[in-house]
Amino acid sequence: MRTGKGRMGTTTKKTIAIFRSNRRVYLSVALGVCVLFATAASASQPRPIGMVLDEADAMRSDANRSRFAELLEELNHRVAEASEEQSEQISYLNAYRTALAGSYKQAIAEAVDLFQRSKNADMRFRAAALALNGMAVQADYTGGLRQLESILPLVDQVKNIEVRRQGLGAGATLYNQVGQYELAIPLLEKIRQGGGLSPRTSCFTNYAELEALQGLGRFPEDGTADRYASKCEGNGEKLVAVFIRSFIARSLKAQGKIDEASRLLERLSREAHDIGYPAQISQVDSLLAEVRLLRHDLEGALRASASAVAAGEKTPTSAVSLVSAYKTQYQVAETRGDTIRALAAYKLYMQADKQNIDQVKAKELAYQIVRHETQQKAQQISLLSKQNEVLRLQQQVDKQSAQNSRLMVLLMLLVCGFVGYWAYKVKRVQISLKRWAETDALTQVSNRHSFSQTSRNALTDAARDGEEVAMVMFDLDHFKAINDRFGHGTGDWVLKEVAEVCRSFCRRVDQIGRLGGEEFAFLLRGYDARSAVRLSDDCRARLASIDTAPSGHSFVVTGSFGVTTTALSGYDLTRLLSHADNALYRAKREGRNRVYLYEPAAVSVESQFGEVMADNVVPLKAEPAAWA
Fold first, then answer.
1. Measured on CA atoms in the order 549, 552, 555, 558, is the torsion positive or negative?
2. Rounded mean pLDDT of the chain?
3. Dist. CA 326–CA 320, nearest whole Å
4. Hey, CA dihedral for 607, 609, 611, 617, is it positive or negative?
5. Residue 21 lies in domain
6. At what angle do helices 278-294 and 319-336 cross, to 10 degrees?
7. Which CATH number is 109's domain given?
8. Per-residue pLDDT tens digits for 148-196
């Protein structure tokens, strides 16, 4: 026993001695094992879903698209562990990713659904702003403006300042797209209130401001735009930076700095193609084509314009770029003496220009429709408020009727007075809306729809009575040059003055209307061809004598007139307008500032304008044009 015990004691002592001599090694191994187990345990525990949401929200941009997709995929797998508020935020990010992928219809539907079911003011505001952006990209300006009207009252309820700024920025962008630049600037000023803008918000706000200033003809030339672009580029917003620099290039071109504009656009074209956003490619390359043409680089101009057309046909917001690209192609073909290609390109140019004008009109119409809807809603709310007040007074009368019947009668009379007053107000509003629907807002003469309707009625009466009627159409010469040189404010002044001149030539039985842009028409009852031509020539002379000094500029206003009568064209309004339009276009071709009478015996040919014109339309008088 003693011997065994001695052996065990000896073994234990040896083991302790070995451990002591190698304890550093053993401790290092143990520490490594602990770290390994801790790392494995940490890897098996995912980050809190709130942290993933915050990172995904910060990554939702073109510059971080792949990382944003990874984080959103993780969130969609973990949606079961999210709270109601977090679940709504995940839905918002999914809708945002859908929009980023270009599926705007689906993104709009998802955003509207979230707006309708969420009770959180911030989330409802974000969802509505996202839907608004999608509608703007889809050129659904009426829907976008309606959506904007629905979110602006929510601004003061939004607690998150960044969310509020995003919505205001979306509204400013939409106002820019529909040409309401004056309305965009106050929204941008609200975004900057309080300072502390995030780099991304600052970038988009600066871009929207420059777009509005360019639209108003007040684009800064002090290097501000270049600083804005550099900041956006430094924050990874290369798409916006290219857009801003395209504004700079357009400004350089307008200043005659063609070489400088060319160098900038060559670089921007490469960057735009790398980004791959069709609207941007179309905008940059159409401008590059213009500059190359000015430098007499015909092949380069054709390549750039072809690229602009290919990209512009993929997006509904590139009408202006398509007009520029087709015009460049026409000018190149004309310079080379290639008549066939020139005619084909000019036809495409005119079609694109018409589509662009139609789009501008559609934007203006959308704005007017939504503005009238808003006014009508305000009137309805006011009326309901008054009606509620009337009901309250009626209840008081009912309660006191037993005590004082005479007071009840008096109050009932008061109620009837209120109802009658507001019925009168409603009727006035209806009459006002009807007048707005029938009248051109700028010139206060009939719009095209109203002119067509009243003219058809007048032609029916005249045909029944055997009375001759004349149709006169005229178009202001080089009106675009007036707008480009002196600004749209001066152009609007000219249109108002022209409308006043036209009214002075019309009797109560005649019709006058603005058909669109700078084009007007008369329907003159009891006029034969000679009388209509004489009146047209007098009107042409009166236009040329308009004193432009009150506009702050000196220039001459002239117009080209086309005339036909029911004796020449019959009592069909469409035919009258078509024949008068043919004569007008002939007046344009023959040098402008003159009157032409349509002759039905002429052989019609298809002109380079894509219109059918009569070769034997006869000029009555010609004056030197104000703009060569």
1. negative
2. 83
3. 10
4. negative
5. 2-44
6. 30
7. 1.25.40.10
8. 887 788 788 888 888 888 888 888 888 888 888 999 899 888 888 878 8
